[in-house]
């Protein structure tokens, strides 16, 4: 695999435990920097944002400033939790916004919630992304024959604990699923929190099949059908819907990290992506964001306000005959 450009600084981070929704909670004995999250706007409304800050109180981007690796020697990756298990709000890193806060996706002017396609309830894993990765929409994958979806690579964390939105955890990669979403490659990494009580028992995708029977089949079913309630067709998958193993998954993640390196070093066009960051870009890079500039950008958003009610329709089941 080719080496990516090296025009940025490597930064090690750790997230401090805090109650939801005020901040995410994670701690590592090997790293001495701490980060928290800050809410802006009204929860469950289009104004809601979740910004990330470092231990010095400086705002950062979860897309660009959080290191991909928690332990590179062991291929342990950081994961930014966007959607806790069992919840429905489609929260995501806002790749086109300054500092890339987590916000809820909006479709046709309405907040987006994934439907409960029977028998599933909300997301069936802790769902999020690996920072400093990017699925390049100009790169056609040789295995899927489709280009990337222009987002960080997605992760499904299968541990026993329901995580907190904005939490950053360290995960062990177990495998990967190649979903084709409306003609785009959309990899889904399967991983487990290294602090999960059962983490030592899971070392590859075959362990998930053996110890959590039905979970992988349910995962394919979930991703195949979750857009059907919105009037869209079922999603497709490469490799005959088979999960690839840990080694394959790790190579895919590393390739998306190289695509991100090219992006942050301006070797690839960013398009509408916002690449401003406070810890990575150096020198006179246009992506280098000062602490004052970051603070001003956050200040332009609404202060944290009253939580809005979640529509009762979010709890309904959606049924349809499988093809």
Provide keyphrases for this structure:
single chain, 323 residues, alpha+beta, five-stranded mixed beta barrel, 14% helix
What does this structure look like?
The protein is of the alpha+beta class. The chain has helices spanning 205-211, 215-225, 246-264, 291-299; strands at 35-40, 49-54, 59-60, 69-71, 76-83, 91-93, 102-104, 106-107, 110-111, 116-117, 126-129, 147-148, 154-157, 168-181, 184-193, 236-237, 317-318. A 5-stranded mixed beta barrel has the order 5-11-13-15-14. Strands 1-2-3 form a 3-stranded antiparallel sheet. Strand 1 and strand 2 (49-54) form a beta hairpin. The longest helix is centred in the C-terminal third of the chain and has 19 residues, at 246-264. It is globular, with a radius of gyration of 19 Å. The chain starts with 34 loop residues before the first strand and ends in a 5-residue tail after the last strand. Belongs to the PPase family. Its cofactor is Mg(2+). It comes from Characodon lateralis. Keywords: Hydrolase, Magnesium, Metal-binding. This is inorganic diphosphatase.
Topology overview:
Elements: E1 35-40, E2 49-54, E3 59-60, E4 69-71, E5 76-83, E6 91-93, E7 102-104, E8 106-107, E9 110-111, E10 116-117, E11 126-129, E12 147-148, E13 154-157, E14 168-181, E15 184-193, H1 205-211, H2 215-225, E16 236-237, H3 246-264, H4 291-299, E17 317-318
Keywords: Hydrolase, Magnesium, Metal-binding
Family: Belongs to the PPase family.
InterPro entries: Pyrophosphatase, Pyrophosphatase_sf
């Amino acid at each position: 695999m080719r080496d990516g450009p090296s025009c940025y600084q490597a930064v090690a981070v750790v997230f401090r435990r805090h109650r939801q929704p005020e901040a995410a909670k994670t701690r590592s004995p090997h790293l001495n920097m701490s980060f928290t999250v800050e809410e802006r706007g009204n929860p469950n409304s289009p104004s809601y944002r979740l910004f990330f800050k470092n231990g010095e109180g400086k705002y950062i981007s979860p897309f660009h400033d959080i290191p991909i690796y928690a332990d590179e020697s062991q291929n342990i990756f950081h994961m930014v939790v966007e959607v806790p298990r069992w919840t429905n709000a489609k929260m995501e890193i806002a790749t086109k916004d300054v500092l890339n806060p987590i916000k809820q996706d909006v479709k046709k002017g309405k907040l987006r919630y994934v439907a409960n396609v029977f028998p599933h309830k909300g997301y069936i894993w802790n769902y999020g992304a690996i920072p400093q990765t990017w699925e390049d929409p100009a790169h056609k994958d040789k295995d899927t024959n489709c280009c990337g979806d222009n987002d960080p690579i997605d992760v499904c964390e299968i541990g026993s604990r329901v995580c907190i939105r904005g939490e950053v955890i360290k995960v062990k990669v177990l495998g990967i699923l190649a979903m084709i979403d409306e003609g785009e490659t959309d990899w889904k990494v399967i991983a487990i929190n290294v602090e999960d009580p059962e983490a030592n028992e899971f070392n590859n995708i075959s362990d998930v099949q053996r110890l959590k029977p039905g979970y992988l089949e349910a995962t394919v079913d979930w991703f195949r059908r979750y857009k059907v309630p919105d009037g869209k067709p079922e999603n497709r998958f490469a490799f005959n819907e088979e999960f690839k193993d840990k080694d394959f998954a790790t190579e895919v993640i590393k390739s998306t990290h190289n695509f991100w390196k090219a992006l942050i070093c301006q070797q690839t066009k960013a398009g509408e992506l916002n690449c401003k960051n406070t810890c990575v870009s150096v020198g006179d890079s246009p992506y280098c964001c000062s602490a004052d500039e970051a603070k001003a950008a956050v200040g332009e958003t609404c202060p944290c306000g009253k939580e809005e009610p979640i529509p009762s329709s979010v709890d309904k089941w959606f049924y349809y005959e499988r093809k």
